[in-house]
Amino acid sequence: MLSLLSALVLGTLFALPAAAQNTKISLGYPPAPDFLPAFVAKEKGFFDKRRLDVTMNRIALGSNIPAAMVSGDLQIGMGSATVLFDTAEAGLGLVAIAGAARFPDKTPNFSVVARAGLKISGARDLEGKKVGVPGVRNIADVLFRKWMLQKGASPAKVTYVEASFPQMRDMLKGGTVDAVVAIDPFRSRMLGDGTGFKVADYIAELGKNILATFWMAKGDWASANPQVIRAFREALAEAVAYIEKNPEECRKIEQKYIGLTSPIWPVFSVALDPRDLEFYASISKELGMTRKPVDVSRLVLK
Fold it and tell me: For the CA atoms of the chain, what is the radius of gyration?
C-alpha cells in the first residue's frame, strides 16, 4: 500500500513541473524607444506573472533580427513592414504578432538631420549626398525614399549608408555621411550638441497614425503557442498602461536598455491591423522593392 501511495505521489510530482513550466522566449530588439513596453514588462514582472521567461537581446541593426529568428536563436523579434515583406518573399514564414509603436503626429520624433555647415534645406539638396539609414530597406529608409519622391527629388541619386542609431552621431560628425534619418533620443543629442541640424520631420509629412514597429515570430511557432502569444500581448498592454501612469520611472528603464532617454516617445500600441501594412505595401510597390503583390492578410496573426 505504501509503495503504491509513493508511486502516486511521485507520479504527481513529475507531472506538476510540465504544467507549471515557464515558456522560455529569447527576444531581440534594436536600441530604440519603440520597445519600451517590452522593457517595462520585463522589469516589472508582467512577463513573469504570465509564465513567460523572457531573455532580452539587444541587436544593433534590426535587419539582422530575421536571420536570428529563422535560425532559432530568437523566438520573438522586432519587426517592420518592409522586413516582413522581404521575409515573406524569401519564404521564411514570419508573421506579425503584436504592435509595438506608431509614429507620433503632434510631436514628431523622427527627422532628417544634416551635418553642421552643409547647405541642405530640403529633399533636392540631398541628391548626390550620403545618407545614413538604420538598415537599407528599413522603414526609416523606405519612408525617406517616399518623402524624396513626394518632394520632387530622386531617391536614386542618394548613396545610402547603413548606420545603427548609436553610430549616427559619430558618423555625421566625422563626415562619413552628410545626413542621417534619426529617431529620438539620438536625434535630440545630435541637434543639441550642434553635430547637425534638422532638415525635415519627414515621416510626419507623409501621414498620420503610421505604424512604426511591431513584434514578429515564426508562423508555425506562433500557431503552436496561442496561449503564449495571448500572454505576450497582455503583458505588453499592461506595460503600456504602466508607462502612462509612471513615465519618470519608465525613463530609467529606457536608460537601462538603450543607454539613453527619449524626450519624445512614440505612441505605444499593441493593436495591429493588416491595413497598417497596406500603406507600406503601396510604397514598396511604387519604389519597386517588391517583385509581386503582398497579401498582408497572411502576415498578421489574428
Answer: 21
List the chain domain ranges.
22-103+209-298, 110-200
The per-residue pLDDT for range 270-280, each reduced to its tens digit, is 999 999 999 99
One of 3.40.190.10, 3.40.50.720, 3.40.50.300, 1.10.940.10 is the CATH number of 110-200, namely 3.40.190.10
Q: Give me the CATH topology for the region 22-103+209-298.
A: D-Maltodextrin-Binding Protein; domain 2 (3.40.190)
Which pLDDT score, from 0 to 100, does residue 4 have? Answer: 42
The answer to whether 22-103+209-298 and 110-200 have equal CATH topology is yes
Give residue-wise pLDDT tens across range 71-128. Answer: 999 999 999 999 999 999 999 999 999 999 999 988 998 999 999 999 999 999 999 9
Query: At a CB cut-off of 8 Å and minimum separation 6, what does 163 contact?
Result: 132, 133, 134, 171, 177, 180
Grid cell digits, residue 105:
503626429
**For the residues of the chain, what is the DSSP string, one character each?**
-HHHHHHHHHHHHHHHHHHHPPEEEEEEE-SSGGGHHHHHHHHTTTTGGGTEEEEEEE-S-GGGHHHHHHTTS-SEEEE-HHHHHHHHHTT--EEEEEEEEE--SSS--EEEEEETT----SGGGGTTSEEEESSTTSHHHHHHHHHHHHTT--GGGSEEEE--HHHHHHHHHHTS-SEEEEETTHHHHHHHTTSEEEEE-TTTTT-SS-EEEEEEEEHHHHHH-HHHHHHHHHHHHHHHHHHHH-HHHHHHHHHHHHSS--SS--EE-----HHHHHHHHHHHHHTT--SS---GGGSB--
